[in-house]
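Q: Focus on the chain.
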Amino acid sequence: MGDRILLIHGAWVGPTCWDSMKARLEAAGFECQAPAWPYDDRPIADLRASPDPALATIGVAEILDRFAGIAGSYPEPPLLVGHSFGGLFVQLLLDRGIGRAGVAISPAPTRGVFPNLSALRANALVLRTWRSWKKTLTAGLDEMSWSFFHGLPEEEQRAAYEAHVIPTPGRPFWQVALAPFNSLTTVDYSNPSRPPLLIISGESDRTVPASINQANFEKWKRSSAETEMRKLPGRTHWIIAEPGWEEVADLVIDFARRHPGSGT
């Protein structure tokens, strides 16, 4: 059995966002799984046409429990790799001692790291929609082009939108925004037993700007646990699938090989 990698996607897009990177990781000898969030494990066309009403009820805890359960089902701890909200979940899981190591790519921040104006604009759909914490939302092409796909030509933006964008619950956004008033995204930044963590940041990211990732990294440096950060110039929030995604995949491969499982 090969070394395992668990890929955790973020908001607005589904597991298909990992398709290219997953193929490259598998070609390098890793076994990869890219599960959906709860109630999202259906074809994209079906999700858009009729999202499960239960999707609107899930938040950070429910999504985190799903991936904790999947990671715990493996015969040995996997490498965790998450993008955006998925990167937040990687940090929360590592703090719980789940996973042998983790890579957080353009991650949503843990409690104590605050958004800036660019991040707020990227999440404007949630913020301006009445009672969005009880709703499932689908970002439009214009919104995704500004927040995710702005590094692509216009035709490729539309193609990426049609291939990847799915309905997303509003609840997790509010839980992160209200982090000072709840413990859902709380971690122990000084946790010495936390597994190794690599944060990868795109310097042209509008959704989770590099300054937020840097602040997140500085918090984690309080711990004696291994913590690394890489900033990639010119990369947007679509860093895992836009041109140059291969470099991101190779950083994951290098990190995985430096922190192997016993099945390697």
The mean pLDDT is 96.
